Amino acid sequence: MTILRVGRTPRPFSASGTYFDGAQAVPSTIELTVDEETKALVGLAETGTEVHWPLGNIREVPDQAGADQMVLQLTDDPVQRIVLTDHSLGPRLPHRRKRPKVTKRAPLFGWAVAALTSVALIIFVLVPVMANQLARFIPPEGERALGQVTLQQIQNALDRTGLNPVPVCENSEGLAALVKMEARLQSALPEPQDLTVSVLDHEMINAFALPGNYIVLFRGLIEKAQTPEEVASVFAHEIGHVVSRDPTRHALRSAGSLGVLGLLFGDFAGGAAVLLLAERLIEAQYSQEAESDADLFAHAVLQKAEIAPSALATIFERFRALGGDTTPFVAHFLSHPSLGDRIQAARDATPDGFDAVPLLTAQEWRALQNICD
Fold this sequence. Notes:
There is one protein chain. It is built from twelve helices and ten strands. The chain starts with 13 loop residues before the first strand and ends with a helix. β6 and β7 form a beta hairpin. It is α+β, with helices and mostly antiparallel strands and about 375 residues long. The radius of gyration is 35 Å and the shape is rod-shaped. About 45% of the residues lie in helices and about 15% in strands.
């Protein structure tokens, strides 16, 4: 016995919708049906526009206002729209979920390149220029407030326990030796500087300057140095950055860059931004000109203070040998010109037969090395 299977006839579709022709921002009512012979959605809008959309060329656009409406468009026409409240047409659209075809990739690629170029120009050109200009107008009290807050954040960021900030070393005999070292350098400065010098009780081999005439030395740097002159040479280099206001410009530049990145990739405001700024200042690598100027400043100050400028070369060589160019100390000072050239420049800045005067007594040097005890 032969069984005849009768194909299921689709239910007739008829609905009212809203039609947008893509040329005018004026909706019009449209009465729609499905032409079973041509397999097309057909209708006549109240404006007189006839619609004949093949079912295979219709895709559904996500309804941004909610899920109560069905928004339709042609796969090859991105501007026309039909909005329906009747969802029964959905099963009859074979390419309902098909993604729109990108026909013009070159303009998209061009816009992407232009956007990336704009961001690069803002971060690497506009932000540095604005930072240099703004640094001239920040009042001294504003710089000191920025330096103080940043130092506190650095102390918190370096604490591995998360309980207490890294303390500032306060051994009285060690502080006396540090004050003596600062006085020797101050006497050789073109103009006296109101410095705030701190030693952090941390093993990092590093030193850096902060806005507001703050200079920070780490216990690790003092412990690894073999002479007080080596510490003084780093001290003089950081004074050079302070005099040139490099830390303030660097802070403004970093903050501006973080702000731009925050707008692009998410919220960089609050504690996260401060911590990132603190890290940027700890590992600050200034420009070639700023580093060269700080070196030259240190050479002149050391020589006038009767300290051999070659002490800067000695400490550079020692710490590079300890861990290569990746140590925090060397990374901080590493920039163009190369570290090797800067070592040679420090040696060349020491005249032949230079008569250096001892900076600290043996007892004072031991006290400085134990300043965190």
